[in-house]
Amino acid sequence: QVVAPLGESLPNQEIFRRLATAIGFDEPELHASDASLLSDLLTQIGSPISYTELARKGTIEWRSEKINPFANGDFATTSGRIEIASEQWEKAGLSRAPKPAADKQPKAGWLRVLSPADQWLLNSSYANDKHIAKKLGTQKVWLHPHEAQQRKLREGQSVTLRNPTGSLTVRLALDDTLPEGVALLPKGRWPSLDEADANVNALYDGAKTDLGESSAVHSVEAEIIAG
Questions:
Q1: Hey, is 136 helix, strand or coil?
Q2: How far apart are CA 32 and CA 75, in angstroms?
Q3: I need a surface site. Which of 22, 100, 175, 212 has the fewest CB within 10 A?
Q4: 168 touches 203 (CB < 8 A)
Q5: CA 162, 165, 169, 174 torsion: positive or negative?
Q6: How far is 169 from 140, CA to CA, in rounded Å?
Q7: Beta carbons of 199 and 139 less than 8 angstroms apart
Q8: What is the mean pLDDT of the segment spanning 85-105?
């Protein structure tokens, strides 16, 4: 810890605990204390001492020998081996073995909306910093010049991306390194600090991936119009 929390600032884990309480989620994992989380983490990495002892000492000398995960060939699968074809996939409703897959092309006239991190941001962290905000400038969406030309859109004009989930109005920028059929709209903007009062999340319907229930943000499709 470098400094004490400023104002009403809180660590992420405390914010998530409070969110869980406010939403009504009572799973124990969502309310674990910092000490419990750190203790579990030390156990998972095979720490030679407990969290209590580490907290008292502050720092310890870590292992000098190299650790190779799964060096003994023992894997946490039914067979105890690496499973490329597995019943576990079938139980999850997937094919027995991995298959290459890709989302279908967007419907006619629509674009695939990709939302990587902005070059000036680490997700949404520091997006409220005035120096970062100056570098970010106005929120933009990038298209290939041919894509914009076909749609009779010009660089710098106001455009709106919309789908059944929501809409977002930003400025248009052009980049000939982008594939046609793609709208590049970086994530991380704070809606409360942007003239659009929204960010790319306004277009995301909350769809989850087929495995692990992660976010499927790059499956977003939207149409784009002037204004």
A1: helix
A2: 28
A3: 100
A4: yes
A5: negative
A6: 9
A7: yes
A8: 85
